[in-house]
Amino acid sequence: MRRRSPPARVVALVVALGWTFGCRAGAPAPGSGTPTPAGPAAVAGAAPPVPAPTPASAVTAPTWDRPSCFAYAPDTDTYACADWSLGADSVDGVLDAMDFERYAPRPGVAWLGHKAIAVVGAISDSVPIARKEYDDGADVVHAEAFDHAARRLAAAGFDAPVTVTRPLPSDAWVAIGGAWLRFTTREHMGDASEHAVGRLELRCDDPAAAPDAAAIDLHHDQGARATAFAAEGATAVAVGIVEWSGGEGSSYLSTDYVHVDVAARCPPPPGG
After folding, report:
1. How far apart are CA 47 and CA 34, in angstroms?
2. What whole-number distance in Å separates Cα of residue 147 and Cα of residue 153?
3. Under DSSP, is residue 76 helix (H, G, I), strand (E, B) or coil?
4. Which runs of E-coded beta strand occur in 52-94?
5. pLDDT for 103
6. Which terminus of the chain faces fewer neighbouring Cβ atoms within 10 Å, N or C?
7. Which residues partner with 175 through β-bridges?
8. For 54-69, what is each residue's pLDDT tens digit?
9. DSSP assignment of 219-265, as one string?
10. Is the dihedral of CA 84, 216, 195, 193 positive or negative?
11. Is 102 left (phi over 0), alpha (psi -120 to 50) or beta?
């Protein structure tokens, strides 16, 4: 996720989430590492106290084996999305069950993974849900149940649903949120490893009308596939990217998210 100087209201939201979830701003960005459990209860494996009930909201459980944004905070133009990773010494096992908590333990196979909620906005944050260290016998450590985190997200303003989901096929322009996005991916082979390279671009005008016009480069890093998400009335779009790398009998999958500020990237013409 791209980092910029955020508005004060976004800083206040992330600080509030940090104190609420035991995860400070500056925590590992989605896809960059295993999040730290929140508090002593998480280390001991005990469930945290159930928070006080909050009004019903649009927050629902995300999908943990693909990019998934499931709630939106209108006041801060920020999305809540499923952040996860899974890596193992058994390539077939990773491809068979990408949700690491459904990954059946393989005797003698070392693997790792994590789940968190990515706060995708002008700045990034990560709310830990569960993690597993790289080992063939380590247990999954649960930092907080998703339903507890969902209530706190609703209280922090994530009370609008994500209404539009658009897969981004490689090398095709897709309209979403008042702009056009194109994701392209290719496989890069090294001496003992390989990974997928992904690129995300934006156009403010219809590419069909001017196919040779320059596009805005938003992301150029690892990436095997991507999905875009938008909420009704939002001025930004969130793009979830699955990153993949492997080699010598191992494989690693993780998510990353890009916050695309369409209003800032594609301002209306003067007098428009």
Report:
1. 19
2. 10
3. coil
4. 69-73, 78-88
5. 63
6. C
7. 180
8. 333 456 678 888 899 9
9. EEEE-SEEEEEE-TT-SEEEEEEEEEEEETTEEEEEEEEEEEEHHHH
10. negative
11. alpha
What's residue 111's pLDDT? 80
Distance, CA of 134 to CA of 198 (rounded, Å): 26
Residue type, 88: A
Which regions of the chain are under pLDDT 70?
1-60, 90-107, 191-192, 271-272
Determine the Cα–Cα distance for residues 271 and 262; give it in Å rounded to an integer.
18
Distance CA 115, CA 37 (A): 11
Is residue 46 exposed (0-12), middle (13-18) or buried (19+ Cβ within 10 Å)?
exposed
DSSP state of 68: -
Residue 67 phi, psi dihedral angles, 5° rounding: -60, 140
- What would the DSSP string read from start to end of 94-139? HHH--SGGGS---TT--EEEEEEEEEESSSEEEEEEEEEEEESSPP
CB atoms near residue 206 (< 10 Å): 12
pLDDT in tens, 4-63: 333 344 334 444 454 333 333 333 333 333 333 232 222 233 333 333 333 334 566 788
Q: What whole-number distance in Å separates Cα of residue 258 and Cα of residue 219?
A: 8
Supply 223's token pair: 């990436």
Residues in the chain: 272
